[in-house]
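Standup notes
- HV: blocked on the assembly model, inputs below
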Amino acid sequence: MKFETLAIHAGREPDTATGAVAPSPILSTTFARDVHGEYPHGHVYTRSSNPGRASLEALLAALEGGVAAAAFGSGSAASLSLFQGLAPGDHVIAPDDVYHGTRTQLRELLARWGLTHSLIDLTDLDAVRAAIRPETRLIWAETPSNPLLKVSNIAALAELAHASGAQLVVDSTFATPVLQQPLQLGADYVMHSTTKYLGGHSDVLGGAVIARRQDELFGRVRDYQGKGGAVPSPFDCWLLQRSIATLPLRVHAQVANARAVAEFLAAHPAVSVVHYPGLSSHAGHALASTQMKGYGAMLSFQLHGGREAALAVAAKVALFTRATSLGGVESLIEHRASVEGPHTTTPQDLLRMSVGLEHADDLIDDLRQALAA
Ligand SMILES: *Cc1c(COP(=O)(O)O)cnc(C)c1O
């Protein structure tokens, strides 16, 4: 079945008890036993499983071409479930521009847990090869990356990982399964912050891990989900399932808008560089063309005028909201270096944008007036 069809139908059927076509959240935390003491519907207690969460997980697994998915209450809980599935002394390789929250988990939470890590430029395969140790268990990739939209080679990283007995995780939040399916390229797990494009409306926090095989580490992810308890609420699962039905439409329209905005910015004299994999000037363009079905709706750009000019443009835009996060219907703009704090390696003259679903002409008009100031 094609992606658009799966996005609507996977994990979803009319309710057998009522005939309801649209799903409703089952808010119950507990489920009845029959006279024999069995659970005829398979659900016992909502921390362990809930009908709506099971539907959402079936949908996510279908969209990524995986065998199973585990849904969490945030993307951060999803990434932590994979890291906590490792043992003290294990080693993780992650990108040097990894999402700052993932970096904080590795540096602050998991260092105390005895996990070691190396932050490497994953676009440099020789550097990755050199960083692999006997105790390396995971290569954690994030492509396209934040905020420079660097593209790393999923198939090559999977080969490198597997050759040394490690596994590959791809944080595919920026790409969505509409544009990139890492499991098909050899990755073992996909991680999403479903807070972003899958939710799509900036009103639900969530995360997921999707597995290529029912293996040992995924078993521990599942265990951590039920026993650690960082699960999404039934209402959040329902919101996500509702949003995912329109995911392909939203993403393709956002990609078209992002391209128009990127081309406008690339031609503007106040802009020194635009980071967007869809532009042939971008270092990851050729690779993105082979491993993605589109170039995404995230982009960043730098200004000749430095930090002051970047802050001034962010202050002057009227349609873009100054806010963190991404993937919603509304366009957002952000001075990343300010958000990331004193340890940031993000250039001070850089602004990051999540391009939404407004008309591209309106977005471009807004940027034109902001850049003219
Ligand atoms: C937002 C984000 C996360 C963390 O997800 P939360 O839902 O905020 O916990 C992880 N990775 C990437 C790429 C993100 O954008």
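- HV (later): unblocked. The first strand starts at residue 68 and ends at 72. The chain is about 40% helix and 15% strand.
- Next: hand off to the docking folks.
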